[in-house]
Description:
With 572 residues, the chain is mostly beta strands. It is 1% helix and 68% strand. The chain has helices spanning 18-21, 344-347; strands at residues 7-14, 28-34, 43-51, 56-67, 70-81, 84-86, 89-91, 96-109, 112-127, 138-160, 166-191, 194-217, 223-248, 251-252, 256-280, 283-298, 309-323, 329-340, 350-352, 359-361, 369-381, 385-404, 421-440, 446-459, 464-465, 473-484, 488-499, 502-504, 514-516, 519-530, 536-543, 563-571. The longest helix is centred in the N-terminal third of the chain and has 4 residues, at 18-21.
Amino acid sequence: MIDSESVERIEVVKGPHSVLYGARAIGGVVNFITRKGGEKTVQGDVKMGYDTSANGNFESGSLYGSSGGFDYRISGSHYDYGDRHTPDGKLKDTDFGNHSVSSWLGYQLDQHKFGLSLERLQLNTKTYSDPAKLAPPMVKFSINIPNMIYKKVGTFYDYEANGTFWKKLHLDYYDQQIIRHFRNNILLQPIPSMQVKQNYGVNDRQSTKGANIQSDYQFFEGDRFIIGAQYMRDHVDQHSQTEKGTSINGRPRPSTIEKTYDAWKQESWSLFAQNEWEFAKDWTWTVGARQYWLKSESLQKIADQGREESSDNHMVGSTSLRYSGFENSELRLSYAQGYVYPTLFKLFAQSSAGRNDGITYGNPNLKAEKSDNIEFGIRYKNDNWLLDSAVYYSKARDYITAIKCGAGDAQVCHGNLDPSQFYVNAHKATTYGLEFQVEYNGFDIIPYISGNLMHRELDLKTRKTDKTGDPWLTAKVGLKNISYFEQWELESNLFTRLASKTDNDTAENSINAIHSAGWATANLELDAYLGTDRLYRVSIQLNNLLDQRYITANESLPASGFGAVLSVGMRF
């Protein structure tokens, strides 16, 4: 839900950050930093383009600036895409559209910084369903989201204390809403003379409020101590309607309509503290802990059971050791504990499955996932070489994952089988692998490779499997170059994206695993910056040059065939 044109830069911070940024950040943080004001009173940029792979057009623009302690930005974007083109033709029901607006207002007064942000995104999309995968008696299946609206208001305050011990105070608060309409239509034909329709619709609203406070201290040279607290509250209201009807020999019988209302709430509180200490030359030790208190509850009565609710509390810790005594190198060794409490949607809701053609069902019996994670990494950089690599190992207990609906899962899956799925706690999950990035800058044309080697094994109720639907290899290999001319410069990037084959055999009562072939695509990107101050930009992306047929892991939607994306933009 972040407009790419509003992103100023993306920071990848490796190492354990589960204390400062939450227990999911066991291996690192990807931080999207959005644009704020500018250097002049009034500045701006506009961009427009066309994507042949789906007859899609897009436009975006921003107006921003700074004056008298104030800085501001107003941005908007619009996307309108048709059905996706693949090597086998168009995919029906893959069109989508969205538009977004956002604004930012900041004010600096001496050591004080105030900020206000507003965001709104509206989209509509459909979900492709492969008719060849429909198992009898199902003859038609469709899912779409005719409307989804995302709204967010955020405020923050920063105080640069710069005292002897107290260095900084940060406060922020946000209030966001996601309104979603979900439609699922099914047509069954159990015998030639009979058809049964099942139309399922859901309208839900998710309201989230969150607040953070963090204070930074330095008690002695080479030390940084951070302490803070976080609060978040989620509330979901869901109205659903199921219509069932039967026709025999083309004569419809009266339909039945069932309406339901559900509401759920989840609250979490946490306190955290972390200390980073340069205790010797070239050595840095970081250690921290975060304490969680969480509570989830269903606000509607279920049969005679009353309200369903659960609560939990848990502490996670992390520590890392970094050594930079070798020339141009840094070694890091880290340990982090993970703690993932299931979201309201994983506990209670039904949603369209982004990972397949069916429905994903919540499971109110889910428990929190806990894990231990170890990583050893090395980063080397000189004038010519960049090497960043790490080996990692993770052991998760009560690992939360979505598995296929099998013959013994009729109750939680409401009678639907594969390709639908539902969330469960696998007994254990063991994951290990190697991530790598290598780049050589000794030539004008720079070769590079980045990727991940991974193996995962799930310990289910009755058996173990390493056929989890995850590729053991994903990678990007390419050549890039920047050429400078008097009035313009050209950035070029020729690369291959690839992934190995996958097998998914996660259903307890499955007979056959779902196999997905490995794939590789060739791609070319060209970006030209024109003018004395490089104010104008022309971009061409040529994707899937060889028009390969492929489907990425954990997806059911065939990827686009050969397509070109042309865009032009300017700054003023």
